[in-house]
Amino acid sequence: MPRTRVHNLNISLDGYAAGEHVTFEEPIGGAERLFEWFDGRAIHGVDGVDDPWTLDRALTSLWGQGVGAEIMGRGKFGPQVGEWTDDGWRGWWGDEPPFRTPVFVMSHFPHPTVEFGNGTSFHFVDGAPEDVLQRAQEAAGGLDVRIGGGPSTVRQFLEAGLVDFMHLMIVPITLGRGVSLWEGTDGAEAAFAVESIGSRSGLTHQLWNRIEPRSPSGQR
Amino acid sequence: MPRTRVHNLNISLDGYAAGEHVTFEEPIGGAERLFEWFDGRAIHGVDGVDDPWTLDRALTSLWGQGVGAEIMGRGKFGPQVGEWTDDGWRGWWGDEPPFRTPVFVMSHFPHPTVEFGNGTSFHFVDGAPEDVLQRAQEAAGGLDVRIGGGPSTVRQFLEAGLVDFMHLMIVPITLGRGVSLWEGTDGAEAAFAVESIGSRSGLTHQLWNRIEPRSPSGQR
To answer: Which residues of chain A from 22 to 51 reach within 8 Å of chain B, CB to CB?
Structure first.
């Protein structure tokens, strides 16, 4: 049965996974240190990677396996707020966005679909997490759906009981402020078996596997 | 550049990776407990696996990624010794051997090729590790070659300086006797960066990444 998965979500020791104000200069809103800690991701599998196959690489390599669509918040696509303007923005990723699948960008404002040659297409959708997930599942063709972030988007799906698997990377830094993955949650871990693994790099990986059946809103 | 890799090699605390006498009843030669410890392998990737995605599964899932051929000792193919007889033996794995690539079985005695419908074919070859590796690399079509075991075969390739990556799973049991992975080696670790990771299951995973250039005999 297809799953809804979160991968490679970097969070600080104080629970922040992004800064508060994304700009064109600061895609993570000032929390770029979360990503500077470790640059050895291998999101499309380790087998093409010439660098050492570390634990960090082995775990980040799960990101793309068996995923047929992604859902992201609009702040992950771009720093604009309010109505979209015709500014030619096509995301942060140049001509080769790493997704290679349909991507559903949650936004209250309409925007034409943005397509790339490598299989990536951005579709802008409004709706509750359940509805957006259903559209993404239809597009995923039987494969899994990844919730790509940012943290408030992941939290929305967590709170709706829609996440089956989550891989967090706890980075040994404090940020003091930002967008918290955990804000307002209480017992987020209750529906999961959580495994924590220390890495030589200083990261702590966590694998969250759902143990409870989906809530009714999450049934497919 | 293609690598030569070892994956999911279970060894006991006292260094044994197989029993001494493989029989039709005991494919691991009496050391079956090494494999009973953990049955949650996911050798062809985790994405088809409905069970929880644990660390153990994530690491065992590297087994099949990017591999185009395997090399194994004859004891992994079957318990027979000496000249092969026409006994109809086609390996331990039924009609669907998990390899799905050419497999080179090291044997001093000739044996016709054994083929299966799922891409697995067993080729029986005699020669030094360097020569067998070269044949396997040609068959792998640019992908990596896996050294599939047993332990004395892995040790042969290790001693020849031909192994680029090795994933060991140290099982928290003692066996007292058997075929040791380490017998006769001294400083096997010297050419590698070794990362050790404890798992909730009790296994210790080790990732060995070669840091020294290949020995001349291993140059391709």
So the answer is: 45-48, 50
β-pair type (A16-18, A102-106): unpaired
Question: Does B55 contact A193 at a Cβ distance shorter than 8 Å?
Answer: no
pTM: 0.92
What's the CA gap between A35 and A17, in Å, rounded?
10
* Residues of chain A neighbouring B195 (CB-CB closer than 8 A): 54-55, 200
Confidence of residue A65 (pLDDT cuts 50, 70, 90): very high
- CA distances (Å), origin B39, targets A200, B92, B136, B156: 26, 17, 29, 27
Q: Report the residue of chain B nearest A48, measured CA to CA.
A: B66
Count other C-beta atoms under 10 Å from residue B26's C-beta: 14
What is the set of domains in chain A, with CATH numbers?
A: 66-77+96-148 (3.40.430.10)
- B183-220 tens-digit pLDDT: 999 999 999 999 999 999 999 999 999 997 665 544 43
CA geometry: angle B139, B125, B166, nearest 5 deg? 65
Please determine, for residue B107, whether its predicted confidence score (pLDDT) is greater than 60.
yes
Q: In B, residues 56-95, which contact A (CB 8 Å cutoff)?
A: 58-59, 61-62, 65-67
In this prediction, residue A150 carries a pLDDT of: 94
Bridge-based pairing of strands B165-170 and B4-11 is parallel
Residue B44 scores a pLDDT above 80: yes
Outline where DSSP puts E strands in B36-131.
67-73, 102-106, 114-115, 121-125
CB of B199 less than 8 A from some CB of A: yes
Q: How many angstroms away from the CA of A75 is the closest CA of chain B?
A: 28
User: Which of B47, B145, B166, B206 best tests the A interface by mutation, with the highest count of A CBs <10 A?
Assistant: B47
B143 Cα to chain A: minimum distance (Å): 9
